[in-house]
Automatic annotation (TrEMBL):
GO terms for molecular function: methyltransferase activity. GO terms for biological process: methylation. Coiled coil: none annotated. This is Class I SAM-dependent methyltransferase. Pfam families: Methyltransf_23. The keyword Methyltransferase applies. It comes from Microbulbifer epialgicus. Signal peptide: none annotated. Transmembrane segments: none annotated. Its EC number is 2.1.1.-. Keywords: Methyltransferase, Transferase. InterPro entries: SAM-dependent_MTases_sf (IPR029063).
Length: 217
């Protein structure tokens, strides 16, 4: 069966790994590792799996985790910036942290905050923490978000990165059945060039893309 990369739509992909649940392929162009569509959960199955998560607005560990994205982002933002928390989940703690820093934050989540009007506005920053690994069509969805970002704005992403094929085989991140796209440093360099973005790795799993160039078709 042939597979097309869900990020860059390149047809040249290679088998990468297979475990007892599903197989993984890697794009020759952008290096994204992805799970073919036949292994994806249904929307109902995905929603039920998310409902098992126990993150809460009062969870100190969750606050520390999100602060690894929020802290460097707050240093980048101008006062009273407008932002979007894309894929905020049932406990939008990151939005509260950023709001406490003096910024206005809209929420969007397919299951927990399906406010589609939020996707029609423009923003100074967009955050998506532990989101891109879930996207069926990351290329299309990130491009749409990029269009919502104002010039000079920042898209802050948080996702664990592929290090090597050897480490991938024992990686806890692939055990989550809702994780279907796995980015690497190489993938983000490709994406930054594609978007005309300035790329910054603020932490091992925190990636900033600043809108300063021209999007290339």
């Amino acid at each position: 069966m042939s597979h097309v990369c869900p990020l860059c739509r390149h047809a040249a992909v290679q088998f990468y790994y297979r475990d007892k649940f599903r197989s993984y392929h890697q794009c020759d162009r952008c290096a994204l590792v992805f799970v073919p569509a036949e292994y994806h959960l249904t929307l109902d199955e995905e929603h039920a799996y998310y409902d098992l998560h126990e993150n809460s607005m009062e969870d100190e560990g969750y606050h520390r985790f999100l602060s690894r994205c929020a802290a460097p982002l707050l240093e980048e933002l101008a006062p009273a910036s407008d932002g979007l928390d894309f894929g905020c989940g049932p406990a939008p703690l990151l939005a509260r942290i950023l709001a406490d820093g003096g910024h206005r934050v809209e929420l969007y989540d397919r299951y927990y905050a399906p406010t589609t009007g939020a996707l029609k506005k423009s923003y100074d920053f967009i955050v998506a923490t532990e989101v891109v690994e879930h996207l069926v069509s990351p290329g299309d969805e990130l491009a749409c978000l990029w269009q919502r970002l104002r010039d000079g704005g920042v898209m802050a992403l948080m996702t664990k990165l592929v290090i090597s094929a050897e480490r991938f085989t024992n990686w806890h991140y692939i055990r989550d059945p809702t994780h279907i796209c796995f980015f690497s440093v190489q993938t983000f360099h490709w994406l930054a060039k594609r978007l005309g973005a300035e790329l910054q790795f603020a932490d091992s799993d925190v990636i900033f893309l600043r809108k300063s160039g021209v999007y290339s078709e």
